[in-house]
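User: Fold this one for me? It's Thioredoxin reductase.
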Amino acid sequence: MSSSDVRDVVIIGSGPAGLTAAIYTARASLEPLVIEGEPSSTSDQPGGQLMLTTEVENFPGFPEGIMGPELMMNFRAQAARFGAEIITEKVTRVDFSSRPFGVWIGDPDAAEPTFRSRSIIVSTGAQSLMLGLEDEHRLIGHGVSTCATCDGFFFRDQHIAVVGGGDSAIEEATFLSKFAASVTIIHRRDELRASKIMQDRAFANEKISFMWDSVVTGLQGETSLQGVEVEHLPTGERTVHPFTGLFVAIGHKPNTDLFAGQLDMHPNGYLDTVPGTSRTNVDGVFACGDVQDSTYRQAITAAGSGCMAAIDAERWLEAQHD
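Assistant: Here's what I get for Thioredoxin reductase.
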């Protein structure tokens, strides 16, 4: 493989982070290649989680709101306009142990990588853990959600439920109580796992009630959520409740399996970056978006970190030529 075949930047993943990185690196004449993932894959959905949402009202610049897929198509078109090459494929293997770095598509056991690049930007995101119900994905964005900050406003004066018992679930429920008529926390145990201060806050909130020792077993509604079936574990009794909103808050899983053993990770699986930068433990490999952010997980923060990764990569490449 000749030096002319080696890319300056390969971006693994898309979403707000990867596509923002593509916009910035393309405008810097680095001719980035974006490997955006496959539509059939839940772990690297092209366009990220916004492709699975409906209306987005909290992304700056859209006072009337915008549909999630439309927003991401705008990101994609803008990156392409400045010269980013985007392919709808899934990365199956990476090699960061030698330079230029290797990236495989298709057979991960192939002797030679599909692409080589001087720098890599990782933006593979994270996925919300779901309940595994038959109608869950069909009703995502139509009553079922994984983000109270994103969707809570749409449930004003409605009776809604939150599944989970950790800090995230309690934080979601507390936030949702600002809008909803009532919020019911459904938890499979008889006590919360959340920190005491979060528990105290929830117990003191008159709008929040609890279904202990219970799990969600079914969802009702054709075009939008109309009811939630709940099983009480000690008795096996199943009842249907007229919730029109269900927020799943049982955790997130970063899409980092591809980088195991090559990039440093936190105990929770998120990629470790140098504070204030997008740099990983491998010189020339950068990470941005939800794959390295277990705190905010918003489109706007992902886009911001994509900008950081692009600038970090550009400056790093410049330094290699000094």
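One thing worth pointing out: Residues 6-128+252-320 form a domain with the FAD/NAD(P)-binding domain fold (CATH 3.50.50.60).
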